[in-house]
Amino acid sequence: MEYMLKISTVNDVEVFKACVEWWHNFSNDLYYSTRVVQPGLQLVAALRSPGTSRKDSFAPICSDLRRVMISRMAKPEEVLIVEDENGEIVRETSKDTDTIALYRTMKEILVYLTHLDSEDTDRIMLKKLASQMDRTEWSWHNLNTLCWAVGSISGAMTEAQEKKFLVIVIKELLQLCEIVKGKDNKAVVASNIMYVVGQYPRFLRAHWKFLKTVVNKQFEFMLETHPGVQDMACDTFMKIAQKCRKKFVAMQQGENKPFIDEIILGLPGIIEKLEPHQIHSFYESCGCILAEPTNWDNCSQQVLKLFKLPNETWQDIIYKASVGPEVFQDREVRKKLVNILKTNTRVAKSLGVPYYVQLKWMFPEMLNVYVTFSKALSEMVKTMGPVMTRSADARSMRAVKKEVLRLLEAFYAHDDGSNKEVTMQTLIEPMTEPILGDYYNSVPETRDAEVLSLFAQAIKFSKGLPVGAIRLIFKSLFACTLEMIKANFEDFPEARLNFFKLLRAINQYNFNEFFNLDDNPAAAEAEFKLIINAIVWAFKHTERNVAETGLMLLIELLENVDKSAFVTYFYTICFRLVLNDILSVLTDTLHRPGFKYQAQVLMHLLSVVAAGRVTEPMWNPDNPEEVANSGNPPNNRQFVVYHMETLLTTAFPNLTRTQVQAVVRNMFESLGNTKIFKGHLRDFLIQTKEFGSGDNSDLFDEERKAELERKQREEQERLKSTPVGSSKQSPQRIFEGAH
């Protein structure tokens, strides 16, 4: 053991990683050997008599191991400030995944060791902190590793012990921040304060004065322009806001107003030196606080006060534009509009329903701004041609339009629908015609893919729009977007993906409207066939996410068809088209990754036939040639069997008709078992020349993912049963803890 401890101090990363794995097994085994598990209860601290002696015998080793782990603690993901190769403190530019993995393993070791003897951990850490305070062991590295270790053991001590320990740690670190000189030194101390306080929400919730002190310290750090400090301050404030939000909105003892009101009042000074993206983060944190349900009675006025600064800028721009529209030609003005809209979008996401009061205030002028820039872009294209859509002016105009669309989409996505009728009347209905009209009349280069996702979200929010609205959406968006994306597989990638997301939303909430897109039955059928052709085009796409979106849409459509009155109609006119094209992609090596969904579609189609769901002939019995080519079938099942055998025999001449007949027969016989059905399908594909060579691992992608998910679940269960899992809040419980 002593040799292992000495090896663990060797300055070699790979050697240290190997040691960490060994120590992880050791600490895990020692911890569980000293614990008793009682049925129905969590792990309790009762010690078995044999375990006690084992624990005591390893106590000196564990104490030395604590010192090694603390002195060599890896950097956690949350810390953004690092020392570069020149010895300077800079903002981290990329995540080191190896270091993050090492940190997680070392964290587990320290948590086990803290549970074994929390007093020794407390003593070692406070002694090392004292050495930082008296400067006898002062260095960036020593302070960093100590604070990272302090943060890693959150929840491992009892609440009383944690309180005593943290009061000392936070006070000392705040004092250290005052006494150290130099920007780099202050930046290092600041980053460690922010990391530590962000790891202990339980302590902050239980101690209001400390919470207020550390939050005010974050605001001080937001004024510090050293690289990384402001970003980390904003991130830490976000974490505290999420986990302690009730404390911000409640009236605390000795205060004359809720803390959030103080923050809003002092907001101009807090964000004075922040960059736009940091301001967006700050506002999102405030939105998270205001979203606290116990605060909703006061929320409307607080939201408007929160937006006082950006709203004043917005009003000033709108007023100047009403006097002279040329103000919108200024790129700086457009940049301000974009930042204001981005700020609103972040709050809409974190605040949800209460954000409505702000959106309602902005909406009329926001829609006017959208229309104004739409007209300006159209005029630019008309005067100077589509090439001008690549100019800086055109891009900045489109940026404003895109942010308007993203803001509306964000609100619909995070509104719980409690005021659905009001939202429909005041927001969705007024926006529909201007935005759809602009999209339809624009040249392809200036059409925003966000329009497609916005209306997909509007349909989800409303749980289905009226038939008139769906028809308008379809006529305004469908054909013109399809023309844009079907020319090739490369242009307009965002529009391509959002187009099928829109179709999925309509299928989910307005399925019947697929068959009712026009009052003229012939026109309605033509429109529906166009939709089916678009879905077929999607799953034939070589880009995996588009192809999978198309396949999932088709599966959802087939499920809806089976529950509707359109079963016979759909399968009579579409069955052969879909079957032929599914077999086409299924037997194309370029589409191997879509095997899971392709097999699901094929199985669904064959199941419909096998169950006799469609009684009308899927072939034309009045056409003698078609009857002869179909083998003169007595029923739809025999027609499909003969049709598949003919298709596959023609496509794969290396396979005999007998082999193909066996494959088709096996498919029909295994329709009740997905695993067996896919197995037959894989066997058939591998028999073909195309799949006989090359990498067929994508055919087993589903099983590989299932195995990975199983391992992840096992790891989660393991963590839940360890002190590591119990000392760390799950994301789902973040807001529960805030109460």
Task: Summarize the SSE layout with pairings.
Blueprint: H1 2-7, H2 13-33, H3 49-57, H4 59-71, E1 81-83, E2 89-91, H5 97-116, H6 118-133, H7 140-152, H8 159-179, H9 183-198, H10 201-206, H11 208-221, H12 229-249, H13 259-265, H14 267-270, H15 276-290, H16 296-306, H17 308-323, H18 331-351, H19 356-384, H20 392-414, H21 420-441, H22 449-462, H23 467-485, H24 493-509, H25 521-539, H26 544-562, H27 567-586, H28 595-610, H29 624-629, H30 636-651, H31 657-669, H32 674-687, H33 689-692, H34 701-720, H35 723-726, H36 734-737
Antiparallel strand pairs: 1-2
Describe this structure in words.
By secondary structure, the protein is an all-alpha fold. It has helices spanning 2-7, 13-33, 49-57, 59-71, 97-116, 118-133, 140-152, 159-179, 183-198, 201-206, 208-221, 229-249, 259-265, 267-270, 276-290, 296-306, 308-323, 331-351, 356-384, 392-414, 420-441, 449-462, 467-485, 493-509, 521-539, 544-562, 567-586, 595-610, 624-629, 636-651, 657-669, 674-687, 689-692, 701-720, 723-726, 734-737, and strands at residues 81-83, 89-91. The longest helix is centred in the middle third of the chain and has 29 residues, at 356-384.
